[in-house]
Amino acid sequence: MNKKCSKLESELGAAATLGPVEAGPPCCIPEPWLRVRDLSVYYGAKQVLADISLTINRGCVTTLIGPSGCGKTSFLSSLNRLTDLIPGCRVEGHISMGTLDVRAAKDVMSLRRRVGMIFQKPNPFPLSIRKNIEMPLKEHGLRDRHERRQVIESVLQDVGLWDEVKDRLDASALTLSGGQQQRLCIARAIALQPEVLLLDEPCSALDPIASGVVEELLTRFRGRYTLVVVTHNLQQARRIADYAAFFWSTGGTGCLVEHGSGQRIFDTPQQPLTIAYVNGKAG
Ligand SMILES: Nc1ncnc2c1ncn2[C@@H]1O[C@H](COP(=O)(O)OP(=O)(O)OP(=O)(O)O)[C@@H](O)[C@H]1O
């Protein structure tokens, strides 16, 4: 077993507070899954991303780093077509996921089931803890009540919330702490069995302990989901990244400066801007 795999094993063993997540095979052998070619994004006349080409490997953690405003969220939102919902937003270029042409996909609801998104600020529905997970399951056609209950328990176990909430599933999700709300949002996303999870600064609104729990959870998801994580926390990015992509903005337009394995981007970056950024001297 190579070094990365044995490291993953010890990380899985260390995640004792979380549920019995069944990890898939670790991403030792890169398998391209999301392919982005010549992606440009505009808000009205303003171009905020130019000609981004990046391949994201299945089952791996890819972190997107770069200063505020360089287009990381816009990039994420293009991947599951949340950009469709932004008035005046226009996307050019090609995005594929496996054999699916993302930009041409007609069934956007199914695309978003396959590509879930977690936001910076936890956004549970103002409903009970149970309904937060049950409602999307119903919307996506899971009619059997017993099966829904099983999924609810299983995903709450996965995110380590089950023991904390099993006696108050009908309480409002808004009574949970910020960290618990974020884990509920992750449970809600994984209940739909996505292939890809997009996470936009998932820990930045959380205290260090809650942030650590979510980070540990992401590490355990490696292999089971393809994770694309935006983070401003370079230590965190360094810890979790199988791959990293560094964005920068010139004159308000974001571009991709450099990408590669996390180890290479953080330990031996090639581009002067990347060197300055990962060493805290730019951005
Ligand atoms: N809905 C919108 N309408 C117009 N401009 C927008 C919109 N959303 C983002 N922008 C602009 O697009 C640029 C890129 O924003 P984006 O949020 O993608 O960057 P980011 O790297 O994720 O920033 P941050 O790290 O601060 O979240 C910014 O200049 C921002 O002001």
Descriptive account of the structure:
The chain is 37% helix and 25% strand. With 283 residues, it is of the alpha/beta class. Strands 6-7-8-3-9-10 form a six-stranded mixed beta sheet, sandwiched between helices. A four-stranded antiparallel beta sheet has the order 2-1-4-5, covered by helices on one side. α5 packs across α7 and α7 runs parallel beside α8. The termini are far apart. Bound molecules: adenosine-5'-triphosphate (ATP). The site of adenosine-5'-triphosphate has 11 residues, from α2. Adenosine-5'-triphosphate (ATP) binds next to α2. One of its GO terms (molecular function) is phosphate transmembrane transporter activity. Keywords: ATP-binding, Nucleotide-binding, Phosphate transport, Transport. This is Phosphate import ATP-binding protein PstB 3. One of its GO terms (cellular component) is membrane.
